[in-house]
Amino acid sequence: MLHSHLTTLNAVSLVLQAFQGQGPGDEALLAGSGISPADLGRADSRITTRQELLVCANAVARRREVGLELGRRMHVSCYGMLGYALLSSATLGDALRLAMQYPALLGTLFQLRLIDDGERVWFSASDYREEPQLAAFNAEFCLTSLKVICDDLLGQPLPLLAARFAHPTPDYHALYGDSFACPLRFDAADNAFAFARTWLDQPLPLADLITHRAMSERCRRLNLEFTGRQAWLGRIRQLLLDQLDAAPGLEGLARQMNCSSRTLRRHLQELGSSYQQLLDELRFERAKQLLAEDQLPIYRIAELLGFSETASFRHAFMRWSGVAPSHFRA
Question: Which structural domain range is residue 93 located in?
Answer without folding.
Answer: 68-210
